[in-house]
């Protein structure tokens, strides 16, 4: 599922698989199901199975392939490609769910004996719920703390990386951010508060891992790309990975998203300037906490609303202001956007951050376009900061490749080959190899 860095609080896209009309015998879904886990397959490959939408599950391969699994009347499970509803020919059968024996496309598999420890720990004034997942054995392993995006869902329920990275020999700590899942407190998007919670999570991960704890750092996706570097600046760690995050403010993110959509639609500089006035009007409304500026946006809608380019003005929050009545926006949006530092500038933190960083970006990211971020990261590289960037050219937000429907909408199909491998290498060694799928690397492996 794609998770926009900023607009997720306004809308969550739910990709639902087509459900069978027959009602097969039930297997419990969700993170507590005996089917959830990472599996060693008889052909030497690995397979992860996690909760999906509704009663479905989702399988993932380390190379980025993924599909939804729907239960059939005969008790088998058949999959549909990515988040489409198109069958892809893969089939799962459960030999013994409790003991972790399965067959996938006829190949036997056995659930890995990953070590999982659930915990409650003190965050910044609230109690948070977390889970440490370790590879089996007693060997010392690197640890990574997964830092949330803006989603309101439970990380303990939905984050497949806690198993996928553990199956690569890495300890993983996931936790429900405040106000989500089983964690206490009020949901917030205040980056300093969230960074402080992340530091507490890191302490708890290290405590639980004990003698097995090796190098330790953060992986932050989307909004986590603002939070994880801030946490690392407050208390240094061994590494930071930012996935589809930004080195610009949320307001600048909205402007760049609009510019990217206008450019992809084939319009030139004159239209770009006009679209920028719409983004600026939206920014003024946001900056006033939805108390003023609506008249300016209404005037621009009257002036340009029938122009062929206007329907491509989307952005991460501008489209909602364009389509929501003023009275509703004044009433509802302040609570929805509460805590977001819309003008937050991450560069002072990044310019003074000596922690090795890997930034992984999508070249087709409509929600968080990477272009100004890459420019700023390049400047940090030239200034001697330990920053490595990787761009997967065909990936949208969430690091998902996609198909484009006839109506122009995208539907996710898979993650890029090399994405998981790259993160695992950087967590283990602080270095990356020379090639990961079709990613462009800068300044390259170290």
Automatic annotation (TrEMBL):
Protein keywords: Hydrolase, Signal
Pfam families reported for this sequence: Abhydrolase_6
Gene3D superfamilies noted in UniProt: alpha/beta hydrolase
Domain AB hydrolase-1 positions: 144-401
Signal peptide (UniProt feature, chain positions): 1-22
InterPro entries tied to this protein: AB_hydrolase_1, AB_hydrolase_Est10, AB_hydrolase_fold
Top-rank lineage group of the source organism: Bacteria
Gene Ontology molecular function, alphabetical: carboxylic ester hydrolase activity
Protein name (database record): Alpha/beta fold hydrolase
């Amino acid at each position: 599922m794609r998770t926009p860095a900023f607009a997720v609080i306004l809308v969550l896209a739910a990709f639902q698989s087509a459900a069978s009309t027959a009602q097969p015998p039930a297997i419990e879904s969700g993170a507590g199901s005996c089917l959830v886990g990472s599996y060693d397959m008889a052909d030497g490959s690995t397979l992860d199975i996690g909760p999906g939408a509704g009663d479905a599950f989702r399988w993932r391969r380390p190379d980025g392939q993924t599909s939804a699994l729907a239960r059939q009347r005969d008790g088998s499970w058949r999959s549909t490609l990515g988040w489409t509803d198109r069958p892809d020919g893969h089939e799962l059968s459960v030999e013994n769910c409790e003991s972790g024996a399965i067959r996938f496309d006829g190949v036997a598999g056995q659930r890995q004996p990953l070590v999982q420890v659930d915990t409650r720990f003190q965050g910044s004034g609230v109690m948070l719920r977390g889970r440490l997942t370790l590879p089996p054995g007693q060997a010392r392993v690197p640890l990574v703390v997964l830092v949330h995006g803006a989603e309101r869902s439970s990380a303990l329920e939905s984050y497949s990386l806690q198993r996928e990275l553990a199956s690569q020999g890495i300890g993983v700590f996931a936790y429900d951010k405040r106000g989500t899942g089983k964690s206490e407190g009020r949901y917030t998007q205040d980056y300093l508060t969230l960074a402080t919670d992340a530091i507490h999570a890191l302490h708890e991960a290290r405590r639980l891992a004990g003698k097995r704890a090796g190098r330790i750092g953060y992986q932050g996706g989307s909004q986590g790309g603002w939070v994880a570097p801030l946490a690392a600046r407050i208390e240094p760690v061994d590494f930071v990975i930012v996935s589809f995050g930004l080195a610009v403010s949320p307001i600048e993110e909205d402007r760049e998203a609009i510019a990217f959509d206008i450019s992809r639609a084939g319009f030139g500089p004159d239209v770009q300037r006009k679209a920028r006035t719409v983004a600026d009007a939206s920014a003024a409304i946001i900056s006033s906490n939805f108390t003023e500026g609506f008249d300016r946006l209404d005037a621009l809608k009257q002036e340009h609303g029938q122009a062929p380019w206007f329907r491509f003005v989307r952005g991460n929050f501008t489209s909602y202001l364009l389509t929501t009545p003023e009275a509703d926006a004044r009433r509802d949006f302040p609570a929805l956007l509460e805590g977001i530092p819309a003008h937050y500038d991450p560069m002072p933190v990044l310019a003074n951050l000596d922690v090795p960083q890997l930034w992984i970006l999508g070249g087709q990211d409509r929600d968080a376009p990477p272009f100004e971020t890459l420019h700023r990261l390049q400047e940090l590289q030239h200034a001697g900061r330990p920053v490595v960037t990787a761009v997967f050219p065909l990936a949208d937000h969430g690091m998902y490749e996609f198909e484009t429907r006839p109506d122009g909408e995208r539907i996710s199909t898979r993650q890029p080959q090399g994405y998981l491998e790259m993160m695992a290498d950087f967590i283990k060694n602080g270095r990356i190899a020379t090639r990961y799928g079709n990613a462009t690397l800068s300044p390259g492996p170290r």
